[in-house]
Fold each of these.
Amino acid sequence: MAIKVTHLDHFVLTVADIDRTCDFYQSVFGMRREDFGEGRTCLVFGSQKINLHLVGKELEPKARAAGPGTGDICLITQASADEIGRHLSAFDVEIIDGPVLRTGAQGPITSYYFRDPDGNLLELSCYGDA
């Protein structure tokens, strides 16, 4: 019998500059920075969080090839595709691709692709907006 996974709690990004990363994710996504433990930092959104590790000072155990720019993440918003495009433009975010139709975990999504300051590929998407 397999164990059933119910949801994602957190994931880790290894970054070159904690403050720069927090500034980007707070301003563009409205995430909340939280400092905890002994010098640790995370970004909170909804009921999940992104733990941040500073490159060269990662916590153990860590990913085998942890490093800035190795993430590829899709985030879902309730905003429409048009609103996503306008929002990213308002923050001078360079859009790599989008709007494009993709398949999300719960069906069709409309997505925009761009990068964070470390070069991680981000996909900001919405359901129900073709």
Amino acid sequence: MRKLSHLDEQGNAHMVDVGGKAVTHREATAESLVRMQPETLNMISSGGHKKGDVLAVARIAGIQAAKKCSDLIPLCHPLMLTSIKVEFQLLPDSNQLRITASCGLDGKTGVEMEALTAASVAALTIYDMCKAVDRGMVIESTRLLEKAGGKSGHWSAAP
């Protein structure tokens, strides 16, 4: 079993010292799925929401969340991200909206938390903007899809 790196020798939580790690290019991609009524998905895709472009607002929210990840997640390192991308895919057969968030940098620690935070906050923003028309929306899953770089190399989730 791997030792949790956020615990010191006394078992106390601490921020991991990454000072001795090599700078490498690191990337991570995460996704969130939001299930909703077909009418809600149609309203989002057509741009017909009276609050404006739901996907544009969710994209900005996801980008902002990735940039502020260390303010939201305890013990997360503040990072100078060099790329953040938030994309959406409408899945009408399952009444879902798939959010994919990717982050990258050249640094000493990974960007998995930033990608996961971006996908999560984009999903929450969609819920917030559409809750008046569909309170039954469900954020079904948020997960890491892929990470690359650093000592542990490349990892991909099972399909």
Amino acid sequence: MRILLVEPNARKVEETTRHMEKAGFTVDHVDTGHDALGMLKSYNYDLAVMNVDLPDVDGFEVIRISRAARVPTPVMVLAEEKSATAKVRAFSTGADDYVTRPYESMELTARMQAVIRRSKGYSEPTLRAGHLELCLGSREVSVHGQGVHLTGKEYMILELLLLRKGMVLTKDAFLNHLYGGMDEPEMKIIDVFICKLRKKLQGAGAGQLIATVWGQGYVLRDEAGAMPTPRDRTMAQATTA
């Protein structure tokens, strides 16, 4: 899952990024409100984690503007202020959660995952499609209860497909999710990753879940044999976090 961290303090950036990456998140960082708005409007992040004390634009205003612009990315405020007034202001402008420093890293990770799950319509920490299960907390994948070993990139692809189940994702979307615009390989690498992922799932008994939508990309469906609908095809995404 790709996270946008909005934090002007270099020490806090290092600390927070370390906790997030240890939990398996991919983190992009900006230190101003204007940059945060630009990134939120340009990329489909799974979550934005924001310090509202920014050097240029008040973080609450960043949230308000992004919501007015119909940016769907959920926002978690990570702040020093513990007052009820600050929390009410955050939620009233469109924040999805409010966490105060100092925080326990395990609690932060759990709350991040919970916000992301809720934003995708999941109430449990396990994502499912047919007999396939992916646990966001442990990063374990199983089919019919049997574990399936995936590489880091294969896991990230499957996680993205499950979080956006039923939506057609372009190869550009996968590249952005895996590499975030940094040192991206050729687009055909996505076909290679998908092929290897399909073989592993097929060996476990779930090889028909990932469908190819010719000329657009790939989609994960709940039931084998259920092809994407015309509405699915119109939801192809060129970018994602």
